[in-house]
Design a protein that fits this description.
Blueprint: H1 14-21, H2 53-78, H3 83-109, H4 120-146, H5 156-174, H6 186-208, E1 209-210, H7 218-224, E2 230-231, H8 232-243, H9 248-251, H10 263-286, H11 291-297, H12 299-312, H13 325-354, H14 366-389
Parallel strand pairs: 1-2
Helix pairs in contact: 2-12, 2-14, 3-4, 3-5, 3-6, 3-14, 4-14, 5-6, 5-8, 8-10, 8-11, 11-14, 12-13, 12-14, 13-14
């Protein structure tokens, strides 16, 4: 479960929790890169015990500091770039790296001792280099298949990549890598997951996406753009909204979900779809909000903030309150959404300050595409790089 791994404990004495944070975790099922984090499981709490406040505060402090460092670094890297460059090739390559990142962490989970004795910086640098190299190869292949007869300006290119990320999150987070956990060989498991991600994404792209409203030139459109069942922006927004619900079950400590697979994956999938149906139905259907503005200000902040609160803080943002699980989960989700929305607003201020000429709204949605790309295509995977590759280095040192 690479993207929502958190350090959690339930029913443990304070000295046991502190031993876990120190790296004495024992034979846990998950095998993340750092030894002080374990996989979020239905039988565990989504935060550390309330009787160990120093541990909780430490997790929150490290998580927020690491997140702030990544946000600042991201803005320093992308804000000087021309908007067209970032919305084009930079976001495209960054998106192509995310499914590869999920496959790499899936492999590492099954090889806990692979980098034993390595420093956090050395290990992280190597894994990042491998991720970028494989992501670049994926970008070449995707461009060849999806943008045939078109170029980087083809809107289907980033949309396919986003759907691939959504599918990857669904397989690794919502389904908790089922059924690929049945594959014993770690490398084959990771490769199978990556191939399945792209095959499912391609099927959704060809069947669901319709680009007629984009007014593409006929010759290129006939070769590249599918004429699927629904308007492309609507399919994309609904899919991202659905996957933003992946944090609901962890916030509630998986309460009420089946233990066994595939029932747990199915129940979690239904939960995400219901979440999307309500939000999308009310926002776009009843209130008639612009579908791209809805994307930027509802599911994008939920994903962005949820990653920081639940993963980067490793469940330590709020103390666990077993007697009030609804209050604890509500506070967690509300904080994630509010934090995500505040960060999107910060990104918007940076965008309009550095590039005051950028335009909002259709038909191009230049500013909205930049905001979505800056948060989810660029900063989102960098947060995971810090957590999964560098083990929160340099904020947290081994």
């Amino acid at each position: 479960m690479p993207l929502i791994q958190v350090s959690i404990a339930q029913g443990r004495r304070p000295e046991q929790i502190r031993a876990m944070i120190a790296g004495v975790t024992g034979p846990l099922r998950a095998a993340p890169i750092r030894p002080n984090r374990t996989k979020l499981e239905p039988t565990m709490s989504s935060s550390v015990s309330i009787d160990a406040p120093p541990v909780q505060h430490s997790l929150r402090r490290v998580g927020l500091a690491s997140s702030a460092l990544v946000v600042v670094l991201s803005l320093l890297l992308i804000s000087p770039l021309p908007v067209a460059t970032f919305n084009g090739v930079v976001s495209f390559v960054a998106l192509c790296c995310i499914p590869v990142q999920m496959a790499i962490v899936t492999y590492l989970e099954a090889r806990p001792g692979l980098f034993a004795g390595w420093t956090s910086a050395r290990r992280g640098a190597l894994l990042l280099a491998v991720n970028l190299a494989l992501g670049g190869l994926a970008a070449l292949g995707i461009h060849y298949v999806i943008a045939d007869g078109w170029g980087m300006d083809f809107p289907g290119l980033p949309m396919f990549c986003i759907i691939a990320v959504v599918v990857g999150l669904w397989l690794t987070q919502v389904c908790q890598s089922w059924p690929f956990t049945a594959i014993a060989n770690p490398l084959l498991r990771a490769v199978a997951l990556l191939l399945a991600t792209y095959l499912i994404a391609f099927a959704i792209y060809r069947i669901g996406f319709n680009f007629d409203a984009f007014g593409l030139p006929t010759d290129a459109a006939l070769r590249s753009a599918p004429s699927g069942l629904f308007p492309a922006w609507h399919v994309l927004t609904f899919a991202v909204t659905a996957i933003s619900g992946l944090f609901i079950a962890p916030a509630f400590r998986f309460a009420g979900l089946p233990q066994a697979q595939p029932l747990r994956a199915l129940a979690n999938t239904v939960l995400c779809l219901l979440w999307a149906a309500v939000l999308f139905g009310v926002g776009v259907g009843l209130l008639h909000l612009d579908v791209v503005s809805f994307l930027v200000w509802v599911p994008v902040p939920t994903l962005f903030g949820g990653l920081i609160v639940l993963k980067m803080c490793r469940g330590g943002f709020y103390p666990d309150r077993p007697a009030a699980p609804w209050a604890n989960a509500g506070a967690t989700l509300a904080t994630a959404i509010a934090l995500g929305a505040a960060l999107v607003a910060v990104y918007q201020v940076v965008l309009t300050t550095v590039h005051p000429q950028v335009g909002f709204g259709g038909p191009m949605y230049t500013a909205e595409v930049w905001l979505a790309g800056a948060t989810l295509a660029f900063t989102f995977p960098l947060l995971n790089v810090v957590a999964d590759y560098f083990g929160f280095w340099p904020v947290e040192r081994a």
